[in-house]
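Format notes (please read before filing issues)

Several people have asked whether sequences and structure tokens are stored in separate files. They are not. Every record keeps both together, in the order shown below: the sequence lines, then the token lines. Line labels are part of the format and must not be stripped during preprocessing.
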Amino acid sequence: MTAPTIHRLRVAEVIEETADARSVVFALEPHQKERFSYKPGQFLTLHIPHDGASLARCYSLASAPDIDSALKITVKRVDRGRGSNWLCDHAQTGAEIEVLEPSGVFTPKALDRKFLLIAGGSGITPVMSILKSVLGRGTGDVVLFYANRDEDSVIFRAELLELLARHPDRLSVAHWIESTDGLPTSDRLREHFSAFHFDEVFVCGPGPFMNCARDALRAIHFPRERVHIERFNSLGSNPFESVLAARGTDPVAVPRASTVVVEKDGATQTFSWPGDQRLLDVLTTNGMKAPSSCSEGVCAACECRLTEGRVEMVNNQVLEDEDIEAGYILTCQALPLTDTVRISYDS
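Then the structure lines:
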């Protein structure tokens, strides 16, 4: 697999959003702008020095492409979180941080639909990027359901109020405050979601909260293929290391060779797929710009949908049984089990 391109970005500003959340704004040099074009809801992978160690951490972009002039990530302190605490304590104007180019598939294909955006805590970060893009570049309507521990934990409060004033007919915001409303449950969320009309859903937040939201959406029979969930797990290796150790494959029954048909951006391409190569490697070797990030099966950035054939995923720490039943796979972990496999990034 080709090593990722590493860039050094300068911190232009650090914004204190709440007592335990900071936004880090990066300035782009003219030659960097093309490489850092991005879609709403994508993330950056940062190289963080911590007590002599080297860490790689993914942080969602809260800025919106073609609306905000600079890149902005928002980081909330996590108990014993080495990356988040280092950034909150040490990121300062003028500092330079090594960053990989934007990645991720938690992004709408169109901005003209009715969206339900569900965020918990710092999960508002990619949701905010999508929200601003829909309102600023699209024609769609947005309902934001935003859960927090207490009133003081609400990130982007002032910005949300400003957007509400600017788009009163297209944006509505429903806050859930645990200190007064109690812990959210799937039954109570179902009651809230039933009151809204929407075409597509994006969910990001703590695991238990996202599970509640997903159960609530299932209870109202909302189609799974129109629910997008962003989950981040800690990376097991560091993509910034200059030499990537060759990865072996677990012993699984795979055919000697396969053919993969790929649908992406309305075009179809066909490649030969050796049985001992991960699908992502096949796609990138053949010159395709396939989305990816961790290459370890923990971030879902490389997710696509299997529409024909069968694959084996060597490691999967992010897709749930329901996702797999719906056909979603991780290209960075997929090995072929049938002579022909067809995947789609468009469905």
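For reference, the curators noted about this record: The two ends are 26 Å apart (CA to CA). The chain has three domains: 6-100, 114-230, 257-344.
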